[in-house]
Amino acid sequence: MNFTHAQILELTGMTQERLRHWRREIPGLKTRASRRGIVTFEEVALLAVLSRATDEIGLPASLIAAHYEDLLDIFRENQSVGEPDFVLWLSLDSAIVSPITEPPEFEIAAVVRLAPVIGQLYTSVHHTGTRQLALSLGSNA
After folding, report:
1. Collapsing DSSP states into helix, strand and coil, what is residue 98?
2. What's this model's pTM, rounded to 2 decimal places?
3. I need a surface site. Which of 3, 6, 45, 59 has the fewest CB within 10 A?
4. In this structure, which long-range contacts are made by residues 8-13, counting pairs with CB atoms below 8 Å and at least 24 apart in sequence?
């Protein structure tokens, strides 16, 4: 399932300006987040999580750009990222997704809960009549 540029903005709550800025700053996002709608649900979920983290904790675009492709791979490959106890752990040179009970050994710059953002996104997409999404949403979704 792919999403259009307008759908990306609506589902993530991002502004047009933020998406444009991130497309300039994040390698690979420019071609995937085009008006042709070639962005997957997993990428929309990641954008929504990072946008919320930017709003709530001031996550800088440079930190996002440094970890974006690795995080996208995690979102694509790890069906558990939508589970209630999973969080995104960020440092200046690392980014991982794991249960809150398993913090990483690196110095943590930010922690972002994933389930509320992914659950809200799933609800928005699900109400439009789209098919089942790949990410697991746990029992709270």
Report:
1. strand
2. 0.81
3. 6
4. 8/33, 8/39, 8/44, 8/47, 10/124, 11/44, 11/48, 11/121, 11/124, 11/125, 12/44, 12/47, 12/48, 12/51, 12/121, 13/48, 13/51, 13/52
CA dihedral 80, 84, 89, 95 (to 10 degrees): 20
Q: 8 near 42, Cβ under 8 Å? A: no
The sign one gets for the Cα dihedral 83, 113, 96, 126 is positive
**Which one-letter DSSP state was computed for residue 112?**
E
For tokens 């939508």, what's the residue? 82
Structure-token match 């790890």, residue found: 78
- Smallest Cα–Cα separation from 73: which of 99, 40, 106, 100? 40
Closest alpha carbon to 68 in 51, 86, 87: 51
- Our CA angle for 33, 36, 112, nearest 5°, is 25
Q: What is the model's pLDDT at position 132?
A: 40
Rounded mean pLDDT of the chain? 82
- Residue 88: beta bridge partners? 97, 112
